[in-house]
Amino acid sequence: MPALNADILYLFFNSANMNRWNDHMRPVDLTELDKQAHKAAIAWVLAKFEESAGKPMVWRRIIEHTMFSFIQRAVLTDLKPQVFHKITAERRGPVNDYVLSEFDRLVPDRDPGFRDRFEEYLGDPKSTPEDAVIRAAHYLATRWEFNLIYDSNRSLYGIEGTRREINEQIEQHTDLIGVREIVDTEETFDFIDLIGQLRFQQRWARTPRIPKTTVLGHSLMVADMMYLHDLDSGASDREVYNDFYSGLFHDLPEVLTKDVISPIKENVSGLAAILEDYERDLVESTIMPLLKEEWRDEFRHMVYEPFTDVDLPGFGRRNGTDLKACDLMAAYMEANISRRYGISSNTLLEGERGLRDKLIEKGRGIGAQRLVEDLDRLRI
Predict the structure, then answer these.
(1) 211 pLDDT higher than 90
(2) 192, 213, 189, 209: which is closest to 201 by C-alpha?
(3) Distance CA 191, CA 263 (A)
(4) Burial class for 106, CB neighbours closer than 10 Å (0-12, 13-18, 19+)
(5) Is the model's pTM score more than 0.90?
(6) pLDDT at 269
(7) Is 72 helix (H, G, I), strand (E, B) or coil?
(8) Is residue 264 predicted with pLDDT exceeding 60?
(9) pLDDT at 260 (0 to 100)
(10) Of residues 160, 168, 161, 159, the one with CA closest to residue 139
């Protein structure tokens, strides 16, 4: 069976229904899907710092192990972090058996090689440099969330203990250059903060919808889809890297402009070109100064025209056509699943129909027809 299938996509998407910090007062919704997206972006920053210091990173391992940790968390639902870490440490074998059995139940049509590596990941001590990067990214994303809710929960019992625990975990990872940079350097923190602000921007903001997914959560869905597709197609390591991180960062300019819905872009003559030029100007003036200069050309390769097929000297190939199909599939799931949950509108119904037509036409590379049909058959 292909690695990219409707079962695993719904497992990822359903994490948008998992609310984090739900025993605290929260100024905004904080979901597991968004946390995992933020974590993946922070892991890129940390690994780039390690690479710049001459320490090679196995990017495919970072991408896949981040996905495996996401699956583990999605299966174990919304346990408190202290409980999650305690049971995975003290009852590792039975917990891993349960996670695998639930994964097999929730994703019956699965790629055997992907499943075997997931089982190996669960039993591994996770002592590689890439796993250290992923752990540090997890706690940095957690602290970013905690800082959002802290002022609203100052009087809550145990809140100071939670803050100490998070800070202690981050201090254990200060051997990573990127952790020190995020803690001590304004520019690096501002970059991950900007990414986090995409957690505030709702998709389909003009229509009722459940769950109310965000731009950042949508971006991880696109990136994870593309990674699974690249597994199926046997893409090279460099293409896997380009495809995944182009998917993860493709909507980052929206943090500066907010989203402009497709009908307006398509029906107002010349607007799309004006917006593209304006976005580039803002990215150059606002985002690029937050990155190390040696990363900037590569980052431009990711965020500018991400849905074009390119093969550039020094950066390699990116499959922008199939990346666009993944973007359409993620949007289609947002509309389709809300309707099936019982929340819809004329705007959402028209959007779902239009996205389905585009997918069937443009998504042959990712097997969109099969994905759409299999998603329709899922009991959700």
Answers:
(1) yes
(2) 213
(3) 30
(4) middle
(5) yes
(6) 56
(7) helix
(8) no
(9) 55
(10) 168
